[in-house]
Structure formats: C-alpha cells, structure tokens
Amino acid sequence: VAIEISSFSKFAGFTGVRLGWTVVPEELLYADGYPIIKDYDRIVCTCFNGASNIVQAGGLACLSPQGFQQPFTTTWKMRKYLLIRESLGLKVYGGKNGPYVWVHFPGLRSWEVFSKILERAAIVTVPGIEFGPGGEGYIRVSVFGHRESVLEASRRLRKLL
C-alpha cells in the first residue's frame, strides 16, 4: 500500500499548468491506527483551492479518446534523438522517461557552461548543480519545444562548441 502522486506535466505536456493527482489509500494508517487520508484531505483543503476549471477541462480532454492522436511521449523522444544526433559527441543522458536531456561537460562547472551557452548561443538551459552536487558539470536541456526549435538550438550549440 502506497501513496501515488502524478501529474500531467510529462505525459501530457502540461508543464507550468500544475495539474496532477494524489491517491491516498484509505487503508494506509499511522502507527496509532488513524487514517492518513484524513490528515491529507484536511491539509489539501486548507492550503489549496484546486485547479481552475479551464485547467481541469484541459486535463479531461487529455484523458478522452480524442485526447492523443499520437502518443505525446513519442514526440519528445524523437526530439531527444535529434538533440543527441546533433550534440557533437558530447555525453548525453536521460530523455528515456521524461523530456529532459542531461549534457555532460567534463572539467567545467555547470554555471559556467550555462552562462556561456546563454550569452553566446541564446539557449536557455538549467545548470545541473541546481539539482544537487551530482549535477555539477552537467546542464539540463528540455526537448519540449517545437522540432524546429530543437534543431535550431542544436545548430547554435554546435556552432558555439
């Protein structure tokens, strides 16, 4: 028995919209036998007013039979392969279960790489160190953009490097 938390961010491309769900099984109890769902419900109802109607409608549309004419994940996986193909032999990780790719720059600090790419190629990435010490030397790149944008970013990165 476990608490399940998920969102529409990755599988439906709803990044920034903040639509998700949590499943707390009624049989999940504290050591004293009190149901965790009661505390969870009280906290959520006190701290969060819920998603707007339009956001909820968008989420329902994604779950409808017409919601996906082609799997969304296929789209960003293809963009990930475009980025990797154009990456000049840099070590690239991730993208398997999400729309983000990690690019390794051995011997360089992630903020230095981020700044150089932003200033010289006008590409916004995220310094890996922002995700913890293991991210040092990496940048995180999103492949959520349009195919043309991913190709253009790849061209700029290739020109910069």
Summarize the amount of helix as a percent range. 25-40%
Beta-strand proportion: 5-15%
How would you characterize the largest beta sheet?
A: 4 strands, antiparallel
Alpha-carbon Rg, integer: 20 Å
Structurally, the number of domains stands at: 2
- Listing every helix as H and every strand as E from the N terminus to the C terminus, the arrangement reads EEHHHEEHEEH
Mean pLDDT: 84
Query: What would CATH call the architecture of the largest domain?
Result: Alpha-Beta Complex
Strand order of the largest sheet: 3-4-6-5
Describe what this molecule looks like in 3D:
The protein is of the alpha+beta class and 161 residues long. The protein folds into two domains: 4-63, no CATH class; 72-160, Alpha-Beta Complex (Aspartate Aminotransferase, domain 1). The protein has helices spanning 36-47, 53-63, 72-85, 110-121, 147-160, and strands spanning 4-7, 20-23, 92-94, 100-104, 126-127, 138-142. Helix 3 packs parallel to helix 5. The protein starts with a strand and ends with a helix. The mean pLDDT is 84. This is Aminotransferase ALD1, chloroplastic. InterPro entries: Aminotransferase_I/II_large, DapL/ALD1, PyrdxlP-dep_Trfase, PyrdxlP-dep_Trfase_major, PyrdxlP-dep_Trfase_small. GO terms for molecular function: pyridoxal phosphate binding; transaminase activity. Keywords: Aminotransferase, Pyridoxal phosphate, Transferase.
